[in-house]
Structures are given as C-alpha cells and as structure tokens.
Specification:
496 residues, mainly alpha
C-alpha cells in the first residue's frame, strides 16, 4: 500500500517538476534577452508614458484613445514602486509565464499530462514568445487571460462544472479586453464555437448564461461610458481600434500571405509548427467525423473543434484584414499546439509509442533543452534591437539633461522620445506649441523619417548646426541629429 502511494505521489510530482523546469527555462531565456537592455520600442513607450502621466503629469501627447488602458494601469502600479524600463518589462515576463502556465492548465484538461507538457514547451520555445516576453507589451498577458477564459468554459460544459465558472470566465474576458481591444474577436469566436458544440446542454441550462452576461455587461460599463463621451457611441473606441491596423495594410490578405511565409520558424518555432500542422489534420478529421455522425462527437473530437476552430477563425480574420505581426497570433498558436499535441499523443498511443515513463521524460527533457537553446537567438535579436534603438534613446536622454521645462520635440517614434526625454512630442506634420525648449530630432535612414520639403521646412527654422549627434559605427554618417528650434511658435499644435 505504501509503495502504491509513493508511486502515485511520484507520478503526480513528475509533471509538476517538468512544468517547473519549462517555466524556469522560459524565464531564463526571457531574462537573457532583457539583459541586452534594449530601449523601449514605440508600443512599449506608448503605454509607459500614459502610466507616468498619471503619476507626475509629464506629457503623453502621442497617446490615443484607441489604446486600451490595461497595460498603462499595470504600469502605473509598477512605476509607483520602481521607475525603470526593467521593472515595467517584468510585466511582460509575468505575462509570458502566465500564458505558458494557463496553456498547460488548459492542455492538461483536454489532452492529458505529458502531451500538455509538450504543448507548453513548444509554445515557450517559440522565439517570438521569448522576445516579446521581455517587453512591456499586452499580447502575452491578454493571451494568458483568454486561455484562462477557455479553461472556465471547458470546465463548465465538458466537465459539467459549476455555473460560477462562467462568471469567472466573464472576468477573464473583460480583463483581456481592457488589456487588448483586439481580444473582442477571439472572445466571440470561442463563445460561438462553445455554443455550437454544447448547444444541447445550453438549451436545457440557459440560466447558466444569465449571470455571466450581466457580469460582463457591468464590467464593460466604464468602457461604454468613456467611449460614448469620446466618440458618441459605446462601440466607437473599439471600432476605431479595429480600423487603425488597416492603415498599415497594403492589400486584402497581405497578412495571411506573410504569416504563411513566416511559418514555421519565425511565426512559432519549428516544434510548435509541427504541432500546428498536426492540429490542422486533427481539425479536418474531426469535421469529417462530425459531418458523418450528424454532429455527435466524443470528448476528444469536441476538444479539437473547441481549440482549432477559434484559432483558425482568428488567423483568417487577422490575415485578411490586418498587417502581419507574429505577436498577433499568440492565442491561436497556443490553442493549436494543444490540439496538435493531443492528436500526436493519440497517434503515438495507437502505435504503442511513448508508453514508458522514461520515454516521456526524455521527450520533455528535450523540449526543455529546446527552450534553453532558443535563448541564443533571443539574445541575438535583443542585442540587434538594442543597437538599432539606442541612437534615438540616447538623443532623448541628452535632451532630458539640458531641456528647460516645459519642453517639446518633433520626431519620428514620438512616444520613445517622450519616455526618455520627458518632453511633449509631435509628428513632422505638426508644429509644437510654445515652450521653453524645443527640439528637432532627425534620424537619417529611418524608414519613417520624412525627407525632402517636409524636412527642409523644419531645418529652416532650426539651429544651423546640430547641438548633438551620434555617428554610425561603420561609417562617418550620423545616426541621429538633434537641432534646437526657436521658442516663438503658436500656443497650440498646427498643421504645417
């Protein structure tokens, strides 16, 4: 009896120890990337300047209402304790670990122990997950909350859990929304798929939806009120947020084509790519089985549809309507690696493979090594980012040392300049308001740096020579130049 208890305890501790190793490996790789101390990029700085404005009233002129407040609220809490880039980026690390942990919890419910570990490790080994995990961004924290929402829904309908789980799902969904407005589509995709898969249960238990619906509505009331005050409609801000990415898209389907080109290495990594392909096969087989059986499905097939349908719907939606960024697909990638791991596990089991504990530990150990190996490209990518962003951040810090307050600057990547200089920032098509110190920052060769008449118009007003400049390492050309502008402009921004 004691030996049985001891073996059961060991069996229970094995997956937990493996999960701990996976999370530690992920944290190591993320921290390795953070070690490069790359300056903030545009999106990081946008949330950071708004958080700092709430603390010391420094300008946040590049903030727009289509930005969700969640990350800035979390940033406010962090900055109240420690004012540093590293402290804010720890929120990204927490989001990466939270997403990996939530992925395991969901996978453990639908595909079982060691396939869940494989799915978690493949997600954690993705280079883009490791890189974004070291940034003050909202994608991974929102993914974690969406996965927790899926856990609550799956527990309620598949395991016939308590209806209170759906209330909890509403809290997670609202949290994901306030972190990232683009969470609206996956929330509806998961909800619609769940309603279709468990429609018989829902018909006889409609009361399960009443309290969660009321809870979600109450949680969104602050957003509706603010949106109405700013745009005139409760959905105005989310509509604006959905339209902004269209400005970056050159053609319909451009994003989908780009994702296909990035698959698998840049999009999700090679291991996750294999699992995503397996999930595609599993989805096709499950859809065929559902069509042939009149909709009757076993739990395994239902799990595949629950995971894969929302994932592919989001990939298609984003690919057809948005420009491509790997971080947009964290949630669908997480769902697909779970479905793929479950499908391969079932295939191996039928082939009598991976039956022994030793083989399972070997596979899990290999995944941990794969995550650790991913730290090398993560560090290299972070160092490249640090080198490319350093000139602008250095110029902004130089402005901070010498500027009289209030100050303003005209530059590309305005939020980055605002974060490191403490000045209000304006685009090249604006004229900054009157202030004690006004600056013009020029980044030769930057893809968004205006040239021609627009640049000449500003240079005509600037000091004859730059007051600060940095040269490129490989040439005598300047990587950044800072000019002083006269302080006699109008009292409000004007179009040039």
């Amino acid at each position: 009896m004691r030996s049985e208890t001891r073996s059961q305890s060991a069996g229970l501790s094995g997956p937990k120890l493996a999960l701990t190793a996976i999370l530690l490996a992920l944290a190591f790789c993320v921290l390795l990337g953070m070690w490069s101390r790359a300056p903030f990029q545009y999106d990081e700085a946008v949330y950071a300047i708004k958080a700092r404005q709430w603390i010391d009233a420094t300008p946040a002129t590049q903030w727009r209402i289509f930005r969700p407040p969640g990350m800035s609220i979390l940033g406010y809490v962090v900055l109240s304790i420690q004012n540093s880039d590293f402290a804010l980026r720890l929120l990204g690390l927490a989001g990466a670990l939270g997403a990996a942990g939530a992925l395991y919890a969901l996978a453990q419910r639908v595909v079982g122990g060691w396939p869940a570990l494989i799915a978690t490790a493949s997600f954690a080994a993705a280079p883009t997950v490791q890189l974004r995990g070291g940034q003050f961004m909202n994608d991974l924290p929102a993914t974690a909350l969406l996965l927790l929402m899926c856990i609550c829904i799956q527990d309620t309908f598949e395991r016939r859990g308590r209806g209170s789980r759906l209330v909890l799902a509403a809290f997670f969904a609202a949290g994901a929304f306030y972190l990232r407005y683009a969470s609206v589509f996956p929330i509806f995709a998961v909800a619609g798929t769940s309603a279709a898969l468990w429609r018989a249960h829902l018909k006889s238990h409609l009361r399960l939806l009443v309290t969660p619906a009321i809870t979600m509505t109450v949680l969104l009331v602050p957003h509706f009120v603010y949106s109405t005050s700013q745009t005139g409609t409760p959905w105005g801000i989310t509509q604006l947020a959905s339209e902004v990415p269209l400005q970056w898209r050159q053609s319909i389907g451009e994003g989908l084509w780009q994702y296909m080109r990035w698959f698998p290495s840049r999009l999700a990594g090679h291991v996750a790519g294999i699992l995503m392909l397996a999930a595609t096969v599993a989805l096709l087989k499950s859809l065929r089985r559902a069509a042939g059986s009149g909709g009757a499905l076993n739990p395994e097939r239902r799990a595949v549809l629950f995971l894969a349908i929302p994932a592919f719907l989001q990939i298609l939606y984003l690919g057809l309507t948005h420009h491509a960024e790997e971080r947009f697909l964290f949630f669908p990638v997480a769902l697909l690696v779970i479905a793929g791991a479950g499908f391969l596990a079932g295939t191996f089991q039928r082939m009598r493979l991976a039956q022994t504990r030793g083989r399972r530990l070997l596979v899990t150990g290999s995944c941990v090594l794969a995550i650790a190996a991913g730290g090398v490209p993560t560090l290299r990518n972070s160092q490249n980012l640090a080198e490319s962003r350093m000139p602008l951040a250095t110029a902004a810090k130089e402005i901070r040392k010498h500027a009289d307050r209030p100050c303003s600057a005209v530059s590309v990547d305005g939020p980055v300049v605002a974060w490191y200089s403490g000045c209000a920032t304006y685009r090249y098509d604006q004229r900054p308001p009157k202030s004690r110190s006004r600056f013009l920052i020029v980044l030769p060769g930057h893809r968004f740096q205006p040239t021609g008449a627009t640049l000449e118009r500003h240079l005509a007003e600037a000091s004859p020579e730059p007051i600060f400049h940095l040269r490129r390492r490989d040439s005598d050309d300047s990587s950044v130049l800072v000019y002083l502008l006269p302080s006699d402009s109008p009292s409000s921004p004007e179009r040039i």
